[in-house]
Design goal:
The chain has 2 domains: 209 residues, Spore Coat Polysaccharide Biosynthesis Protein SpsA, Chain A; 126 residues, no CATH class. By secondary structure, it is an alpha/beta fold. The strands form 2 sheets. Strands 1, 2, 3, 4, 5, 6, 7, 8 and 9 form a 9-stranded mixed β-sheet that branches. The protein has a 4-stranded mixed β-sheet with strand order 11-10-12-13. 43% of the residues lie in helices and 21% in strands. The chain is built from 11 helices and 13 strands. Helix 1 runs parallel beside helix 2, helix 9 runs antiparallel to helix 10 and helix 10 crosses helix 11.
Length: 361
């Protein structure tokens, strides 16, 4: 089926009435550039047992018209709703409240679902103790340096299926770009926390799912492709927000938790009476450490040069493994973005640590 980027698919026949197994919830804010493609990818799914709830969160562009057109053409498939409270948390909770399906599948308006996405999600719910299923999030495009960077370093899940039974901060949390939850479990947890308007609400929900006695299954075959941030400002905002979320989650879900991340190893303990997450393995901290040592003896600056060369080589290896291409200039730009992202996250962690009275950097 040929899917147009610029127009919603025209119906060949009246949409059949069918039982709803899955309710796909999509919040959107000024998403006219991506929402049509998202809708078309859902229309191409080889299944009738799902509905799509499109929740307008105060958009000022033409995206509400796009969503309304889909709801009028396919009234058995699409539902248009509005949420005036600003923030994706409110919009997702609004969509979940309208859902008829037993499974709530959350994606974003800048996502495209693969044809096998829905069957893979449903197959992963066969175990009644599976409270949620997380799928793989891949990057769209790969044309710009930002596309390539976020494809390599943002929302990267494991390559193999796994089952998670607890939230540890460094594992067990998943983004709402591709997260399906049993409606019953979602209701038992209270849904997304409205106090977390923009960051950490998805990982917070995962933590509460475990607390209810359920596990989360990760299925790398349930794939959506996602348009990642495509600017320095967007990358900074997202990374900084992730950092503040780390500190908040540490305070909210642990009374005792110590994590010390070092290059190629990690120490974790819940015996000591403190809440601390110290990441000494990030690129920015390694660079700062090498530059600091070099202040005491300048010949050690050579170590900094060696580290940069190592990162360049590692970046080339990652690019090749993901079957992408990159010029020398682009590869150095990717190295710069790695420092940029990790520094923004570190500052976000420090900000979050001060606000939540934990040790997190």
């Amino acid at each position: 089926m040929n899917i147009s980027e610029n127009s919603i698919l025209s119906p060949d026949a009246e949409m059949p009435k069918a039982a709803v197994a899955v309710s796909v919830v999509i919040p959107f804010f000024n998403a006219e550039k991506t929402l049509k493609r998202c809708i078309n990818s859902l229309l191409a799914l080889p299944s009738d047992s799902f509905e799509v709830i499109l929740v307008n969160n105060n958009s000022t562009d033409d995206s509400p018209q796009v969503a309304q057109t889909a709801a009028k053409r396919y009234p058995q498939r699409f539902i248009y709703a509005e949420e005036k409270k600003r923030g994706p948390v409110f919009a997702r909770n609004r969509g979940a409240g309208l859902a008829r399906g037993e499974i709530l599948a959350f994606i974003d308006a800048d996502c495209l679902v693969e044809p096998d996405w829905l069957p893979q999600l449903l197959r992963s719910f066969e175990d009644p103790q599976t409270g949620a299923v997380a799928g793989r999030v891949s990057g769209q495009g790969g044309r710009t340096v930002f596309d390539k960077f976020h494809a390599l370093f943002t929302f990267r899940g494991p390559r193999r299926p796994q089952v998670y039974r607890r939230f540890t901060l460094i594992s067990g949390g998943f983004p709402t770009a591709n997260l399906a939850v049993r409606k019953e479990v979602f209701q038992r947890t209270g849904g997304f926390d409205p106090s977390l308007k923009f960051f950490a609400e998805d990982y917070d929900l995962c933590a509460r799912i475990y607390r209810e006695g359920f596990h989360i299954r990760y299925n790398p075959e349930a794939i959506v492709s996602h348009i990642h941030r495509n600017s320095l400002a967007g990358t900074w905002k997202q990374s900084y927000g992730f950092g503040t979320g780390h500190a908040l989650l540490l305070r909210r879900h642990f009374k005792r938790r110590l994590i010390i991340e070092l290059p190629r190893c990690c120490f974790e303990s819940e015996k000591l009476p403190l809440r601390a997450w110290i990441d000494l393995a990030s690129a920015d901290k390694k660079l700062i450490g090498l530059l600091t040592v070099s202040l005491f003896w300048w010949p050690l600056m050579g170590l900094t040069a060696l580290y940069l060369a190592f990162l360049f080589r590692e970046m080339q290896t990652r690019i090749k493994a993901d079957q992408m291409t990159s010029s020398r200039q682009e590869t150095w730009a990717l190295v710069f973005l790695l420092f940029f992202k990790s520094f923004a996250m570190t500052l976000g962690r420090i900000d979050g640590a001060l606000r939540n009275r934990v040790l997190c950097f």
